[in-house]
Write a structure and sequence with these properties.
The complex is a heterodimer of chains A (80) and B (833). By secondary structure, chain A is mostly helical. Chain A has helices spanning 5-26, 33-44, 49-79. Chain B folds into five domains: 57-103, no CATH class; 167-268 and 275-308, no CATH class; 328-372 and 382-468, no CATH class; 475-561, no CATH class; 569-686 and 697-739 and 758-812, no CATH class. In chain B, a hairpin with a 2-residue loop joins strand 1 and strand 2 (193-194). Classes of the chains: A mainly alpha (80), B mainly alpha (833). Chains A and B meet through helix 1, helix 2 and helix 3 of A and helix 1, helix 2, helix 3, helix 4 and helix 5 of B.
Chain lengths: 80, 833
Amino acid sequence: MPKPDKPDKHAAASQAVDILEEIAAMLNCHMDRRMLSTCISLIEQGVHPESLVQVIKELREIADETRREQQEAAIANSRR
Amino acid sequence: MAPDRVANALDNLITQIVPSRGPNEGQDSWQARYNLSHELVRAIINSPPDPDILSDVDRAADSIKRKLIQSNPSHALRFSDLYSRLLAVPVLKSKWAILYLLYALADSPDPKAPPPPLSIIQPSSSNYREAVARDAVKKRARARSKSIPLTRIEDDPMGEAKIEPSETAILRDLPFTLQGVSSTTLPFTREDMLKLPPSLPLPLVSILHTLAEPSLLYRRLDAFCQTPANGLLAQSLRSAISNELRSYLTLVATLEGQIRKALSLLDENAPRGGIGNTGVTLKRCVVWTREATMGLRLLSLIAEESENKKGGQIITLIHNFASSNGDPVVAAFAERLLGSFTRPWYGILRHWIYDGELSDPSLEFFVREQTDNEDTLRIKGNVWEDKYEIAQDMVPSIISQEFAQKIFLIGKSLNFIRHSCSDSLWVEDYSKAASKELRYGDTATVEVWIDEAYKTTMKRLMDLMETKFRLFVHLQALKDYILLGQGDFIALLMESLAANLDRPSGSQYRHTLTAQLEHAIRGSNAQYDSPEVLRRLDARMLQLSHGDIGWDCFTLEYKIDAPVDVVVTEWGNRQYLKVFNFLWRIKRVEFVLLSTWRECMTGSRRVLQSPNPAVVQTWKSTRGVLAEMIHFVGQLQYYILFEVIESSWGELQKRIRKEDCTLDDVIEAHRRYLEDITHKGLLGPKLRHHPSDNKERTTYLDQLSEILRFMLHYRDTIVGLYSWTSAEYTRRQEAELRNITRRDDDGGLASSDDVPSEFPALQERLRQLGTSFRTRLQILLGDLAYQPDVDMRFLGVAMNFNDVYQPARRKSKTASTASAAAAAAASTNTAKP
């Protein structure tokens, strides 16, 4: 890769992420910038979006469950 | 290489979403969770994707847009903007897939929010801001839970400390915004939409909302002023509004000066950029523009509502704000607007009341030229009534209805004087002398001036009518000749025409009629009347059916030409004709009866003497009936000529000689005069009793015609009797002579008795006619006795002052309405035989 090209491309990429972030905010997707760029790179690698949607949904469910468990544990602790 | 990067990225994703190990959580449980996630992810990624999804970038974008339009239209607009920018970015390969991903994840529950059991409300930064701007109620509900603003600020991608763009930047751009010009921070995305930077905190957004109102209103009004106006008043409204806008711009300019001054003094190091110390903040700007905003609001309301109104209606609209709005600021504002806005209207008004010309190209004045009259004859016939009209809905509320009528009359009269009375010289002099500048505001003065103009024009018009066109002379002449007021003239005319008119109508010639008319004028006092009047008098035959005799179709005519014909209209002429024909018929019957009476009287000395007592008796009763008839006709004539015409004439005189009488009043008085005459003179088309009573009820006119016809028949029979009696007389004379000469001869006396006599037939006919006359008269008297009009009742009394007749009352009158029909049927049945 030629060197002078790189910052240009970088700026373009960050601009794209900016735009997508705003769209995500409008759509209430609840994705922060980091997560969004991860997703973008996944898709750029050829992951099918449908699968990715499933992945994110599943992971969020797990996260939800975990958090609830943690909370219950915390409440149990404080009562003790 | 690539699968490696995918695995890495997925790892990242898992760590980002799945929470890290909690403080009191075992290593193994976390590890288990982690492994589970990994397996799950891998399984999903490796399974083949749904082939249904089309990899079309526009499709994904479309579905997002549709979704946004449903939830928030302003976002949809913003999205199109972002989308086009995204397409321009070169780096991404599969944009559709990313958009699809976002679309699929739209409105997913917030993973960072506290889990459901603990929290009821789950605000997220963007929709929170949204909802606040829209819905104050929700705002209050949220403010109750204090923890939420904190979460919001944490969520805010920009963070709280740095407001982007800063208040100073906004302040710098504010004057442009207030003038409706786009700036970097506050661009106008559409004609009526101002885009606020998405990254501003809530309080600032609400302030900017307030400031956006005058900006948007200004833009709209500016656009309104540029639109082409249809009509002078709409134009003037635009000009008045742009005047107001100019003063608004002056305010903005002052504001800008203040802002510039404040910004130059700005201290970068002070908190919030030191903006608090300079004295100019966004909040201050809100306060300063508040009054202007109210004005703009009112203006835009007026502009909007005036769209489909015109002329006087716009004035009414604004005047309503000025007069009936409770807010004194609004009222004063509207009042100010009216002052400059109504100028063209007053221009039209001035032209109308001082020149009598309607210069209203776009039909905004409340006086309109009537256009829908297709037959030119009618327009020509009645310039006064049909040329102009008032459009009630265009009368502005700044003048009263009565006043509008006055203004209408002034202009109409001036126009009439100028065009119909050909006296434009006076109108010009008058407009030069009296013309005054009319303006809105000083209503009292305007009214005084208009009153003045009203008086002057009316006086002039009446003066013209009286002196130049001799309206009153004509009315007098109409009464004298057409209503038979000039007795000697009518008597002479009838006498000279009588022989002529007995012949059928086919053999009446105009030249003989006019010659007789001339003779009647020369021989009576009419000769002293002015030639102007006599010139207009004409005798002619009506177009009647074949076989009538001259009496039926003869008519006198009095020609009326413009401009007097606005008073004596076509309708009036018809009424005059009707009255004349009726009176002429009565006069004729009277004439005939009187001449018959005369003949009888002279004849009774000689030829009518008879030795036969039956004949003598018949003559006696005939004379009695004849006297009755003469009495009847005399009373009728007296009634119509004196009770009706003279008294109505007196009334008319009283009305038209009043001090402030207008042409309209004269027309109305004359109409009433004619109506009185036709109604009271028994010519009215009114049914006798209840209008709903019966269809077969005849009018007085029909009844009277019938009675008059009986009289004529009676007279014919008398003539027959007369000739029979005189023939009998001569035969008797001859017989006597024969007796003397042939005294010596025998026989021959019996021959006279053998002559077939028509006497019984005549006697029978006379008796029959006499009784039917009497019955009809009694019915008439019965009807008259129950007239609401006193004069008409009086006629009945005068005819029957010694109760010689028994007024016949119809049964149906006394009966209740239920039995009325039956009674009517019965009466018709009995009437038939």
